[in-house]
């Protein structure tokens, strides 16, 4: 998606060979007008699929998932939590997820009330690197007997392999910008 | 706001005398159509104010703040983080915030790049109880020299006193639903 790639080049900050920091428009500070354009594009890419619920993971998936849920005319949006607060008293599904940026494993959870066997889920996240978060969310859906209809990331770091692994397993995965590699401080997108 | 109060009564779960769980529509599972109505109402309540940036705190403030930022035609939305991930390398402002539901003190942070002395800020959060999160966010703004134009919570738990304290200090605080007390498992709203 061209406007996204241009924005990543313009405002993204390359750190080393594997991190692209986009917190001036995608995390921390959000350009919601850009988000709206991304939401429309995600809706377009899954227009042939029947979807009844959006699933994401806290924190940075929530804003883009909100915009997508609105774009679908108001689908329920569920986000998995990384910690269990004292008010989360329901039975929940859980799965381990390793954070690439934080280097820690957390348990992600979602209340059993919010994933049903009848659900047809579109999973959304901001970044796709090794695929850990996606696999965690897929696991939550499987535990609930819900069907994973599609996966979508805003930015896929192709060189970290998670996306290719998911596609090889037959998932319909879309990424709005695919970073092939980071070379000499420059971002190279997949053609 | 009547539709919100009705929804809290219909779907909220009262726990003890001070917790109202609304995670079927406001946290964890989000009714984004309701959020859109809330966003319009927040925009209406601050229509006489000049605002150039929305500030919230992760996690549960992000979705409502996203909708409000869109309602304003696309204002920049900044969210304070509760933990410092390895990619957050900038200098940041920080303030301690005690979480009512989790019972822990965390440091909230925002990169110095995203709060400026010229900013006129509307602070948004989902719940207002003792006011800890609001005071933390106000502190971040003060450190940056930014002006806090208004504060808005979706649900204020009036009996926990944070809202009255903030109003007494002269802040323009709006809350879309004000819970006066929880009595015998029933929610009583402020008239």
Record the SSE blueprint.
2 copies of one chain form a homodimer.
Chain A: H1 2-11, E1 13-15, E2 19-21, E3 29-30, H2 32-45, E4 53-57, H3 62-71, E5 77-80, E6 92-98, E7 105-111, E8 120-128, H4 132-144, E9 147-157, H5 162-168, E10 173-183, E11 186-189
Features:
homodimer, 191 residues, alpha/beta, Rossmann fold, six-stranded mixed beta sheet, two-stranded antiparallel sheet, 5 helices, 11 strands, 28% helix, globular, Xanthine phosphoribosyltransferase (chains A, B), EC 2.4.2.22 (chains A, B), Xanthine_PRibTrfase (chains A, B), PRTase_dom (chains A, B)
Mean pLDDT of chain A: 94
Q: Please give the largest β-sheet of chain A.
A: 6 strands, mixed
Q: How many domain units of chain A?
A: 1
CATH class of chain A: Alpha Beta
Count every helix of chain A, treating DSSP H or I runs of 4 or more residues as helices.
5
Largest interface: A-B, 42 and 42 residues
GO cellular component, one term (chains A, B): cytoplasm
Catalytic activity (chains A, B): XMP + diphosphate = xanthine + 5-phospho-alpha-D-ribose 1-diphosphate
InterPro entries (chains A, B): PRTase-like (IPR029057), PRTase_dom (IPR000836), Pur/Pyrimidine_PRTase (IPR050118), Xanthine_PRibTrfase (IPR010079)
Pathway (chains A, B): Purine metabolism; XMP biosynthesis via salvage pathway; XMP from xanthine: step 1/1
Q: What would you note in describing this structure?
A:
Chains A, B: 5-phospho-alpha-D-ribose 1-diphosphate binds at residues 129-133. Chains A, B: Belongs to the purine/pyrimidine phosphoribosyltransferase family. Xpt subfamily. The structure is a homodimer of 191-residue chains. With 191 residues, chain A is of the alpha/beta class. Chain A has a single domain (2-189), classed as Rossmann fold. The first copy, chain A, is 28% helix and 35% strand. In chain A, the strands form three sheets. Chain A has a six-stranded mixed β-sheet with strand order 5-4-8-9-10-11, with helices on both faces. In chain A, β9 (147-157), α5 and β10 (173-183) form a beta-alpha-beta unit. In chain A, α2 crosses α3 (62-71). The first copy, chain A, is globular. Chains A and B meet through β3, α2, α3 and β5 of A and β3, α2, α3 and β5 of B. β3 of chain A pairs antiparallel with β5 of chain B, so a sheet runs across the interface.
């Amino acid at each position: 998606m061209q406007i996204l790639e241009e924005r990543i080049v313009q405002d993204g900050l390359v750190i080393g060979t594997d991190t692209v920091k986009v917190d001036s428009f995608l995390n921390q500070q959000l350009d919601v007008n850009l988000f709206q354009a991304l939401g429309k594009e995600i809706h377009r890419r899954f227009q042939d699929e029947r979807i009844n619920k959006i699933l994401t993971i806290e924190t940075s998936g929530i804003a883009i998932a909100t915009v997508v849920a609105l774009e679908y005319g108001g689908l329920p949006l569920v986000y998995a939590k990384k910690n269990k607060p004292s008010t989360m008293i329901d039975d929940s599904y859980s799965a381990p997820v390793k954070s690439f940026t934080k280097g820690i494993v957390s348990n992600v959870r979602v209340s059993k009330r919010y994933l049903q066997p009848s659900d047809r889920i579109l999973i959304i996240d901001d970044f796709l690197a090794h695929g850990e978060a996606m696999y965690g969310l897929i696991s939550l859906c499987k535990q609930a007997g819900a069907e994973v209809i599609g996966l979508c990331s805003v930015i896929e770091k192709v060189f970290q392999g998670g996306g290719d692994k998911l596609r090889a397993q037959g998932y319909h995965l879309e990424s709005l910008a695919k970073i092939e590699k980071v070379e000499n401080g420059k971002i190279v997108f997949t053609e």
